[in-house]
Amino acid sequence: MKIRYLLFNAYSVGGTIRTVINQANALAGEHDVELVSVFQTRDQPRFDLDPRVRLLTLAGLRGSGWRHPIRAWLGGRASRLVPPSEVRYASFNRLSDRGLVRYLRSLDGGVLVTTRPALNLLAARFASPSVIRVAQEHMYVRSHKPDLIDQIARWYPRLDAVVTLTDADAAEYAAILDGARTRLATIPNALTPAVRTPAAPNSKIIVAAGRLTRQKGFDLLVEAFAAVADKHPDWQLRIYGDGKERAKLQRLIHRLHLYNHVFLMGGTTTLEQELAKGAMFVLSSRSEGFGMVLIEAMAHALPVVSFDCPNGPAEIITGGRDGLLVPPQDVTGLTVAIESLIADPSLRNRLGTAAKESVARYYVDRIRGRWEQLFTELQEMKAPSRRSSAPVGP
Questions:
Q1: Does the pLDDT at position 389 exceed 50?
Q2: pLDDT per position as a tens digit, 306-319
């Protein structure tokens, strides 16, 4: 089966990039897989790519502008096709518009998986109906702005399927796309094969990870840890990730006199090794599409504490059995949950052991089978009415 994944930037670092590359790698053994990146910002992707996966870039902007004046001119002008309500709108441009439309109109048959709203919308508008068009939601639909949801309601009915990470989000899409023939499916992200060292039994390190943005709620976590550090000064918090909130978080750490307790560790491509150093993992997000880092931590037998934010944590964690769920943005509750794990090593061990067992349902072999089944069913549905008509215009 010919399967194509279309990413905003396969050369950067982030949860969507990592999980999409993992999917492409998992399918490469049995299928013809292509990874298409709209932009290219470095020579090689940061995450390992199976050599059987072909890598294609649509709108490279690297190199001197004076050598490529037309490319530079197009790259400096705002997109005409991406809705301004898309979070990444400012990063798209006329050059990416041209590259995307040319690519989408060139396709015939096979599967195309698009991985963010702008790309999903463009696939609906410009890819031929001969292509199985699958939109993959990596956040959740209600996290998008109302204008973007209006665009989703208008164009997604042209897609063959929308795949969400949680059942809750699938229900939201069902309401928005009411009456559309677009298939809705829930397929969570997969755990890839890795050597996962169990959590360090005597560690006094709390691990957190994610982009340093308001959504991830690291400001709430730092505030919660301030009370923890007062009672347990020998414990420390390590936050892995980069982002625009870094300076703000650093100021908060200094204001709360936590500079010897809380450390912004920067981005890493070796999170598995860092998780193994921890005594617990904490997710403090205001919202999540799923919470991939939760299942990665749980696979190390790390006890986890998480806000019960929309939409993913409650579908991953069974509170009190394999982790602790705290009401959304409840800083005091987060402090209490962390302190309960610090005070009770046997509770840490019990939750961690159960966590490792419960995430077996996310192993890549199981998740790969669900993707293959979906693609096969969509292919069978399209076969009787397969058309070779010209691509649909805007």
A1: no
A2: 999 988 899 999 99
pLDDT 10s digits, 193-216: 777 888 888 999 999 999 999 999
Give the residues across from 319 on adjacent strands: 323
Q: Per-residue pLDDT for 393 more than 90?
A: no
Closest CA to 162 of 190, 185, 179, 144: 185
Distance CA 248, CA 228 (A): 21
What is the C-alpha to C-alpha distance for residues 276 and 301, in angstroms, rounded to an integer?
Answer: 9
**Smallest Cα–Cα separation from 275: which of 290, 254, 294, 260?**
294
DSSP SS3 for 10:
coil
**Res 60 pLDDT > 80:** no
Give the residue among 49, 46, 61, 40 at the shortest CA–CA distance from 14.
Answer: 46
Residues whose CB is less than 8 angstroms from the CB of residue 84 and which lie 6 or more positions away in sequence, other chains included:
147
pLDDT tens for each residue of 134-166: 999 999 899 999 999 999 999 999 999 999 999
CA distance 64 to 75: 12
225 touches 253 (CB < 8 A) = no
| Domains of the chain, CATH where assigned | 2-190+364-385 (3.40.50.2000), 205-362 (3.40.50.2000)
Cβ partners under 8 Å of residue 108, min gap 6: 128, 130, 131, 388
pLDDT band at 241 (very low <50, low <70, confident <90, very high): very high
Average pLDDT of the chain, as a whole number: 92
**Residue 89's closest CA among 118, 114, 58, 116?**
118
The C-alpha atoms of residue 271 and residue 95 are separated, in whole angstroms, by 34
Angle at 295 between CA 196 and CA 267, to 5 degrees: 75
Instruction: Tell me if residue 275 falls in helix, strand or coil.
Output: helix
> Sign of dihedral through CA atoms 75, 80, 83, 84?
positive
Residue 115 pLDDT? 97
Phi first, then psi: what are they for 324, rounded to 5°?
-120, 130
**b/e code 349-379 from CB counts within 10 Å (16+ = b):** eebbebbbebbeebebeebbeebbebbeebb
Do residues 279 and 199 touch, judged by C-beta distance below 8 A?
yes
- Which sign, positive or negative, has the C-alpha torsion 330, 332, 337, 342? positive
